[in-house]
Amino acid sequence: MALIYISANLFYNKKEGALICKSDLVGISNVLGGRSVSTAKKEPKFIKMANFLYLGWTLFLAVLLIWNFIQIKDSVQKEALITLRMTLDRDLAFRAWATGHGGVYIPVGPQAEPNPYLAHLEDRDLFTEDGKELTLFNPAYIMRQVYEADRENWKGAYGRLVSLQPVNPANAADPWEKEALHLLEKDSTKEEISTVTTFNDESAVRLITPFYIEEGCLKCHGDQGYELGDLRGGVSASRPFAPYAVLMHSRRRTLILGYSIIWLVGLGGIGIFQRKINISARDLKEKEVRNRAMVDAIPDLIFHYSQDGVYLDLEIKDGTFLSKLAGKDAEAGFIGTSVADLLPPKIAKNILAAIEKVVATGEMEVLEHALRLHGEKIYLEERLVLEGEAEVISLVRDITAQKELEARLTYLSFHDELTGLYNRNYFENELKRFNQGREYPISIIYADINDLKKVNDTLGHSAGDRLLRDCAQVLRHSLRKADLLARVGGDEFVAILPRTGEKEAQKIVERIKTNLADYLRKEGSLPLGLALGLKTAATKDDDLVLTCKKADDLMYREKLRKRKTPGP
Description:
Distance between the termini: 76 Å
Number of helices: 17
Largest sheet: 5 strands, antiparallel
Structural class: alpha+beta
């Protein structure tokens, strides 16, 4: 039988999850026509790709690591500069205060010698009435003494006043400070200049900010030719970079560790990928053997039709619906018989039309059939392709499980799985439909189970689930067939009552309460308590969404009332 050879040219690809036929389904025609189809063994071209992936992954992480090193260095330098700025801001605030007061008079002593660079001032030295000698400390002199006192404490920031025209040679700028002051003099918009360089024979972060001539400065520096607003010099601060270098190296070590882990994980992933490629390559080499071993993956049935719909050949696998129905001798009953003689009229008509279209166009046709077998409904999918010039090959498979799953998913998209009621999605769609309909007045009943969490916590979630199902039954038996009941939340239910006024809806609420009381009197019943809210939309002018919200609000008011007054 010619169709048996199809088995050797079909195989089921588990990785792709689909039935594959050489050269698609048209390959069947080649086999039936006596033309063999060769299988070329091709080595995958991407086996060597793994080496490029190893190299690319390593280079990518290396570039990223270098970029992060630069970011860490910039970040640490910024932290050091922030510390220096804080120091300078403090010193400049103190200098501004001293300048505003024209300097400070200090009792002369070993630590407060008169400033020789202020000797030209008549009031540099004063005597109190009791004969105590005082000398003037101008802002620059004050800050220089403070900085000199801190010079030995190199663990912190070290600062000083510098100038291109110093009165005191000690305030002369060093080479870096000179260059910075010249830049500040050229560009008055710059607020500071900073860098990491060598200072006192070690790496340090340095910062200089300009200060300009103010009114209080002219007392001591007016004879130098300065005018208000001229650049007088700068406040220079330096701080050892060693502690920050330790911090930077620590962060870099942590980064290297993290990147190493990522690199190794990436290499492992590439290795796994390479291994899969190798396995795929071996699978491709054994393709013919595997194909023959996977004949069972072909469709349940294979039919060979003539142009007129006569069965020319077929293959029936054991265990399929047709073998169960007709036995192994089904082939004798089919071959030479027309589709119209064996199948229900509607199905036969569809198949004959599809055969005619395939022969006319050469394109594949797909049909779905529904049949009854021993009282059970089964679904079949049939794919028809052209064989030669006027014959058709049909592959048929049982899709009952797929259809049942689709039906189940459709059901779950509109129903609550636990209670069987409609879900929130369906309820909201129906609420929109009712809102635009003509079934007013419409009443909305909101119901909420009291203390569901307590039942879950004390009796277990299985008891909580039973309570929800029992509540659904109580509500369902209390409503009419035309009413819509849905579970819209964990413990919330809502009913839409079309063509129902407030009085009639109130009767239904009372019926719910009566049925609830009957339930609670039954032996083994769970402690089911309900809070109910009722609101009616009398005409189309009353928005149902707002009516629903009002019913929800009324339900919560009753719930709060019952909490204060315990009861069913």
